[in-house]
TrEMBL record, chain A:
Belongs to the binding-protein-dependent transport system permease family. Its main location: membrane. The chain crosses the membrane at residues 12-33, 68-95, 107-130, 142-161, 182-207, 243-261. GO terms for biological process: transmembrane transport. It is a multi-pass membrane protein. InterPro entries: MetI-like (IPR000515), MetI-like_sf (IPR035906). GO terms for cellular component: plasma membrane. This is Multiple sugar transport system permease protein. It is found in: Cell membrane. Residues 72-261 form the ABC transmembrane type-1 domain. Signal peptide: none annotated. The lineage of its organism: Bacteria, Bacillati, Bacillota, Bacilli, Lactobacillales. Keywords: Cell membrane, Membrane, Sugar transport, Transmembrane, Transmembrane helix, Transport.
UniProtKB/TrEMBL annotation, chain B:
CDD domains: PBP2_TMBP_like. It is found in: Cell envelope. Belongs to the bacterial solute-binding protein 1 family. Pfam families: SBP_bac_1. Its main location: other. The keyword Nucleus does not apply. Keywords: Signal, Sugar transport, Transport. Transmembrane segments: none annotated. It comes from the Bacteria. It comes from Alkalibacterium subtropicum. GO terms for cellular component: cell envelope. Residues 1-29 form the signal peptide. This is Multiple sugar transport system substrate-binding protein.
TrEMBL record, chain C:
GO terms for cellular component: plasma membrane. Its main location: membrane. This is Carbohydrate ABC transporter membrane protein 1, CUT1 family (TC 3.A.1.1.-). Keywords: Cell membrane, Membrane, Transmembrane, Transmembrane helix, Transport.
Amino acid sequence: MHKKLNTKTKTIIHVILIIGAVAMILPFVWMILTSGKTVAESTMIPPQILPDSFRWENYSTVWDALPFISFFINTGLMIFFRILTSTLFSAMATFAVAKLEFPGKNVFFMIVLTQMMIPPQIFLTPQYLLVQNLGLLNTVPALVIPGLVSAFGTFLLRQFFMKLPDELMEAATIDGANIWQIFYRIYLPLAKSGLVSLAIFTALFAYKDLMWPLIVNMSQNKMTLSAGLASLQGQYATNYPELMAGSVLAIIPMVILYVIFQKRFIQGIATTGGK
Amino acid sequence: MKSNWKKLSLTIGLGTALILTGCSSDSSANEDVTLTYSIWDQGQAEGMNAIADAFEEENPTIQVNVEVTPWDQYWTKLESGAQGESLPDLFWMHSNEFANYSEGQILMDVTDLADESETLNMADFPEELVELYTTENDELLGVPKDYGNIGLWYNKTLFDEAGLDYPDEDWTWDDLLENAEILTDVENDVYGVLAPLNREEGYHNFIHQNGGYVISEDKTTSGFREDETVEAVQWYADLSVEHGVSPTVGQFADNSNLSFFQSGRAAMGFFGSWMISQLAENEYTNENVDVAPMPAGTEEAVIYNGLANSISAFTDYPEEARQFLEFLSSEEAMIIQGEYGSAIPALSGTDTSFLEAYPQFNIQAYLDQMEYAVIKPYSKYTARWEDVENQALIPVFEGEATVEEVSETIITGVEEVLESEN
Amino acid sequence: MEAHNPQVNTLTTKKAKLNKKKNMMFWGWILIAPTLIGLLVLNIFPVIQTVYLSFHSVSTFGQSTFIGLENYIKMFNDADFWQSLSNTLLYAGIQVPVTVVLSTLAAVLLNTKIKGLSVYRTLYFLPMIAAPAAVAMVWRWLFNSQYGLINLMIESLGFNADIQWLSDPSLVLWAVIIVGVWSSVGYNMILLLAGLQEISKDYYEAATMDGASKLRQFFQITLPLLTPQLFFVLVTSIISALQVFDVIFVMFDVTNPSLSSVQSLVYVFFHESYVLNDKGYGSAIIIVLVLIIMIITVIQLLGQKKWVNYD
């Protein structure tokens, strides 16, 4: 199958793949084109493809109309703290499960697996009530709370820790290191690629989450990009150029991260499946 | 468990409060206080901030943070805030929700403020609005902030092209329909008038123009028992269903009435005064449209409503909050509100300041209509019976039923809600 | 060297072993503690609480009263609930197979030695990293019956293009399905591609020598060896399809008369719990969804032996 593909087959494959690629990026192209139009240009019948001249004012208008800086900061803080706590805690738990023998560890791992099986909406209302009782509605900690720990992370990292040899543990014990030191100094650095994968996942899911930030943080200056963008629609329902400019602003940070860490993204995802 | 938590947090809270007041007792006059003022309209944020700035200048020890929460989440936020007794110090109140809040004892009674204040006099506000925010026990739980009603907007360019005269205060339903028929150009997707399934900016006005009503004054029966009401809603729905001079309910799902109007695809539309800023911001409508009073049926009528500023019953700074409320209701703040084009100020004599914000439009039409304006129908659970009405009328606007046929459903559903209020 | 006193030696090693065991237990529990406590507080306890809430009426201001099965009875008599259940199942029933077929096709085509692999991969994955609100908004605009690009393209192909994607009750769900397929093909393709790349070339070389056609190789080698990944993709796709919410929430206004033809169970859950503030009823709805998802998943896990090849 991998060997000689004749040119004709290759051309057919390319044609199919290009059609797919066009379908994938067309919405983004349309988003960018619309973001540079006037309202009049965007509502021509039949639709006008290109703006006469690209209207950057749409960007400054929407930037002024909404607290985008707060959106970026809130999203950034949420992602930062979720990555910090969930990767550290998951790595600790995974190390214990993979390298230590102690009673209760199987029960713990069962809890991890159970959590992964249950659709997250069932946690939502109690988590909301918890945040409310703590008086944390409309704060950054409210955004972080559901992501403090991660069953998925514990599961994902297991594959990386399992691959690391047990002998390291014994060698270090003889050298007089305690278990925390063994974990922190020896295993943690070796699991780096797993940690990076988990961090990427955490960032992506936190960034895409819509319902949680929508219900806990209702004040505009406490919203994330995702939720803030959704609220933009309610206010500017008719002004698609500005809505699209807002959308472009909201997706740019992730696109930049994706371009930089592309390999990590793809490897990270490939490791989650199938085995 | 929960009560323990409450006790604990109460103790901690009290402790902290004691420590704080203890520490600052000698300097309490200089202590800075920050009030949160919650609103739902981003478009008014600028005006509200300007008012806050003016207030801060006069009261350097008090800071006011204006906090915007989109309408969809505004009430959820207040409700959950009320549970944790952590509401913003001041916030906007709306007639649809007022009953919930007055019953829940969430709002501070400011009757004494109005009695004692030198500047605040409730007689200077539209009577019906004051009544709206006053409970049966004569507690005043909010001071009117603004009022708004509905205007007939028209596209001057389309009227000019068709060689027709612009709508004026003498217009009737017949004029509306005749002109709409001439102006409709289905080939080019241009419609004479925009008649979506809207209440406040739509058929509720027509019900009153036809001598009907939405709910009875004693808030026990539905107006759909009256022929005038049924007839008016049918006439309004027929603009799209029968005459095709308005887009259909399906088309409005894709593109709002504002979108049709802003893209020059409709000659007329009904828009509330709170939409003016959006019409002014859009280049096309800013240049090509203007506003006239609503057309008359058997009588002249228009729906109006008004927001109020209310204080949370749980505020930590009742004195400062009352000071700010007094300022919000003062002539100075009302004029700022008008000049920024936020909304038509509720204080009598200050509403003309709103005219200056939009010299390009004939805003006077909104002010003149107050002569015969009818307050937006409300009861305790307004949103619930509005929903009943809306659901039942969808098939009518889809052309699959007549108002006559669904009126029984509306009467039963609405009156059930009204009955549950007592 | 120290073998002259064997008794003492075994004693100390025993002691050391016991200490080591204690030490391990201590550290084991310390290390899992944050995650364990977090999962108990944030996940396990909430499940119990949701079940509890579903038997209660929760008032606007937080009081809850036990009402037995009333929420469930209300649900079974609620036409909106049944409609949203059927919408959800129909959505999953179409979106998942289409996504799996298209992502398999893309993965197989990309697993050939052609140029531009990484470019294609980057582009196909792009929808996955965009904020769902942005995605739904641009699609809403693309589907617009008057100004939308999609109707324009259909028209330019010579068809009647007056298609009301966002308001015709028989089409609205299809609009959501299209967006759903579009946003998940790239993700699944990457999972499948990873599986394909693990398949040893020897199989194909042997088959080619036997004169098997490419098509036959695909069905006899590629597909069977890809079943573990296909199984994973299928299970996760069904779970996430049954939870569809974001796109519907952003593409359809509450005032849209066709909303009932498109709203999913999670949408109704959200609406009841956080817009109408009936958290008891919302909890009952979400419990039904969770049960459905668990049942489907268990059936798949049991059925996998029949077709999944784990060698």
